[in-house]
Specification:
The structure holds two protein chains of two kinds.
Chain A: H1 9-18, E1 27-31, E2 34-38, H2 42-51, E3 63-66, H3 76-92, E4 95-97, H4 104-110, E5 119-123, E6 136-139, H5 142-151, E7 153-157, E8 161-167, H6 176-187, E9 196-200, H7 202-206, H8 209-217, E10 226-228, H9 233-239, E11 260-265, E12 272-274, E13 282-284, E14 295-298, H10 300-303, H11 306-316, E15 326-329, H12 334-342, H13 345-352, E16 355-356, E17 377-380, E18 396-399, H14 402-411, H15 418-421
Parallel strand pairs in A: 2-3, 2-5, 3-4, 5-6, 8-9, 8-11, 9-10, 14-15, 14-17, 15-16, 17-18
Antiparallel strand pairs in A: 1-7, 12-13
Helix pairs in contact in A: 2-5, 6-8, 11-13, 11-14
Chain B: E1 4-10, H1 17-20, H2 32-35, H3 47-50, E2 56-59, H4 71-78, E3 83-86, H5 91-100, E4 104-106, E5 117-121, E6 126-129, E7 134-137, H6 143-150, H7 154-161
Parallel strand pairs in B: 1-2, 2-3, 3-4
Antiparallel strand pairs in B: 1-5, 5-6, 6-7
Classes of the chains: A alpha/beta, B alpha/beta.
Chain lengths: 422, 167
């Protein structure tokens, strides 16, 4: 019997939710504080709920249904699935975020549901985004979600933790997305499978809460279950106007046991690019600079927040897009869109020649609003570049920060934003 | 649990859920038999036609990486595949397989060739390669997962017990 008293953030949050002290490797039943599903996963959740003889949702105020993946509906079959979702939410008293409200992983934090020290499951793999708010938040399938709707609980294998510490100072032209892509390249697509990441250090502390979410968002691309960060003053300030429920932040014990600790100094980090068809196929921008583009997509749960659009609007300025380039911008929520209009970002983008869509996932998942044609090359601020991800297996997708994407849209090829920032 | 028999269909590392079933089909219907025709079509067109009931998907590392779509294990099951054998799995996919009652086996798959006849003993954790007269030791499933799998998945478990009963 191993004696192990000191705990990681993941172990502490899960201990509090299992009602007993738990450690890496234990299989537990945990209470769940918040649940979410979207239009790609809710139809099967409803099906599983019915198969399980579900009568009512245990805590309807703790469940949000979001119509974002294929919204507004481009076809009849989708419209019918959306209708089923609205009826399910209405019948059970769940909160519905309908077409145009935004992307689930931007809405959940923005609307004050993602809280420190809580356990959140979402029927979407990028639920790990809320780790930036110190929540043990992870993606599950529809059946898991249905079970949690009925019982208020789910089962977990308590993960071991890899600690990633970021030292130094982020140079101009490099952003949290570049840290995140570099992390994917370094850990690889299965380097953290079944494990938790704890992301910390002075660089993480220096980032805004929104910028931190970009890093936690990509945790799943390393196979990780969660991408946890500390609950510091910035998190408390972010939550002050929006937290819906009481919460208490959780810190790791000083002598917590980690599977490994990786320290990285980011002082020399430049823009990073993930090359098709894998998120961990990451290179410094110099290796692919000049690659000609057909479409640039800015948005998504990774990089569609107001800070991202501010960076984009600053770089676009009064310039026009390069000839032949399509720039598609999807503000990630209604609030983001409103703010982007108030600050004049949307006007700048439209004048430059960009197409601005309703807040939704759209092109990122290849459902609508910008599916590339055969042999086209796309630069996107999303989190996945798999073959066919944007709806066409013959197109190739590169991933970057919003700054790199915006500057590349002006040049017509993959271009280094440090040229205009320095 | 009875032994599983079938032929191997070999895949590489990092087969993601977009390849298993492209995102665009999630929105066409919830009919898995219909969607099963598109299984792996972006990386192996015509795969569905090659499958005989009971066959296995045999893969390398990180099978099922990517999205949380439960359609991925469901279409594999609907296509007639009786189990997925891989070096290791992405975690959401792995959970989803257990929850929908699709057996997953972790073992070294390098020696298994395309078309090999396999017999899988889930309880003891062995993959017998009938074609090559060899035996591969697999990582045993935790008892909680065996319980859910034996009951036919999480929905059946809930129907039987009215909630979680994993102790």
């Amino acid at each position: 019997m191993k004696v192990c008293l000191m705990s990681t953030i993941a172990e502490k949050i899960l201990s509090a939710h299992a009602g007993k002290k738990v450690h890496a490797g234990d299989i537990i039943v945990s209470s769940v504080d918040f649940m979410m599903s979207q239009d790609g996963t809710t139809p099967l959740t409803i099906k599983a709920f019915q198969e399980m003889n579900g009568k009512e949702i245990a805590r309807p105020d703790r469940y949000a249904v979001v119509i974002d993946h294929n919204a507004p509906s481009p076809m009849e079959s989708v419209s019918n699935l959306h209708k089923d979702m609205r009826e399910f939410a209405e019948k059970h008293g769940a909160t519905l975020y309908d077409v145009g409200e935004g992307v689930c992983h931007v809405l959940v934090p923005e609307q004050g549901y993602a809280l420190p020290g809580t356990v959140i499951i979402g029927a979407d793999s990028h639920t790990c985004t809320y780790g930036a708010l110190n929540a043990f938040a992870t993606g599950v399938g529809s059946t898991d979600l249905a079970a949690a709707l009925i019982s208020g609980k789910t089962w977990f294998k308590v993960p071991s933790t890899i600690k990633m510490q970021y030292d130094g100072q982020l140079p101009r032209g490099a952003y949290s997305k570049d840290i995140a892509l570099r992390m994917c390249g370094r850990l690889t697509a299965n380097g953290a499978t079944y494990k938790a990441l704890e992301l910390c250090g002075p660089v993480i502390d220096s980032l805004s809460v929104e910028a931190r979410m970009t890093i936690s968002n990509l945790a799943v691309e390393t196979g990780a279950k969660v991408g946890l960060m500390d609950c510091d003053q910035k998190v408390l300030d972010y939550l002050k106007p929006r937290a819906r429920f009481a919460f208490k932040g959780v810190a790791a014990d000083e002598d917590a046991v980690y599977e490994k600790v990786l320290v990285e100094d980011v002082s020399q980090l430049g823009p990073q690019i993930a090359c098709p068809p894998d998120v961990d196929n990451v290179v410094p921008i110099e290796k692919v600079e000049g690659k000609e583009l057909d479409q640039v997509f800015i948005g998504t749960c990774t990089n569609g927040r107001i800070e991202d659009l501010r960076i984009v609007a600053d770089i676009i300025g009064k310039n026009k897009l390069a000839k032949g380039i399509r720039l598609i911008v999807s503000p990630a929520s209604r609030t983001v869109m409103q703010e982007a209009m108030e600050f004049g970002y949307i006007q700048k983008l439209v004048k430059a020649g960009a197409t601005v869509t309703a807040p939704s996932c759209g092109p990122c998942v290849g459902t609508c609003n910008g599916i590339p044609s055969d042999n086209e090359v796309v630069l996107s601020t999303a989190n996945r570049n798999f073959k066919g991800r944007m709806g066409n297996t013959k197109a190739s997708i590169f991933l970057s920060s919003p700054a790199t994407a915006a500057y590349s849209a002006l040049k017509g090829f993959i271009a280094d934003p440090r040229e205009v920032l320095e | 649990m009875k032994d599983l028999f079938g032929r191997s269909h070999k895949f590489g590392d990092n087969v993601n859920t977009d390849y298993i079933i492209a995102g665009k089909y999630k929105f066409k219907s919830t009919d898995m038999d219909d969607m099963a025709k598109h299984l792996m079509e972006d990386i192996r067109p015509g795969f569905y036609e090659e499958i005989e009931d009971g066959d296995f998907i045999v893969a390398g590392h990180n099978f099922g990486m990517g999205s949380s779509r439960e359609q991925a294990p469901l279409v594999i099951k609907a296509a007639g595949i009786s189990a997925v054998v891989a070096k290791d799995f992405a975690r959401i996919f792995y959970r989803n397989c257990i929850n929908v009652g699709l057996p997953v086996i972790e073992c070294d798959t390098d020696s298994i060739a395309e078309g090999d006849e396999l017999r899988i003993d889930l309880e003891r954790g062995f993959v017998h390669n009938v074609t090559q007269h060899s035996k591969i030791k697999a990582t045993p499933l935790p008892s909680v997962m065996v319980k859910i799998l034996n009951e036919g998945g999480l929905a059946e478990h809930f129907k039987k017990h009215g909630g979680f009963n994993l102790d």
